[in-house]
Amino acid sequence: MKTIGIDLDGVIVNFSKGFIELAREVYGKKLPKLKSSNDIKTWKFEEWYPITEEQVDELFNNVIDNSEDFWINLSILDLDGWKLLRSKFSNSNEYRVYFITHRSKGQNLFNQTVRWLKNGGWNNPQLIFSKEKHKVINGLDIEYFIDDNLEICIDAVEKTNTKTFIMDYPYNRLGDVDYIRKPGGLIRVKSLEEFINFIIDS
What we know:
Elements: E1 2-6, H1 15-27, H2 53-64, H3 79-90, E2 95-101, H4 109-119, E3 126-129, H5 133-140, E4 144-147, H6 150-159, E5 163-167, H7 177-181, E6 187-189, H8 192-201
Parallel strand pairs: 1-2, 1-4, 2-3, 4-5, 5-6
């Protein structure tokens, strides 16, 4: 059985769109909508979107942390990719998928996240919360791993034997050259379909 580790936000779930929509609800509809994930230039919202660091902290630490449904209501980032992932891996005896997330804010966070996955058609999701994903990868002997966080992906390359993929965005392209070029190192993909096909063809 092949084991697969998949991040949620930025890979399957459109967190940034949901966060911007929340900012517009709290701070005013005059704030611009997020048109594309390619508009996200850095990890820090205040560096590319017209809100302050204090407002970002307020949204995370008060609004999201006290919400019972923020994570449930987020949209799917790539619907076709999600459907393909479900069809190939959800009920398969050949593959086992673990969803590994660094989420930390929100009421009943585990239940919100499981409910989102089940609402999306994934039966009996295997969900893990961790700040140190390389330890989860090693502990579960995960063979294929995808994330959108460059630092986490570099950790996976350096500290595990997993085949590591990064979902390509402008905000995670800096500082990756040595890892992209390294044999057996980081692999950039543009879509879930590309990631899935790599696994199936392996």
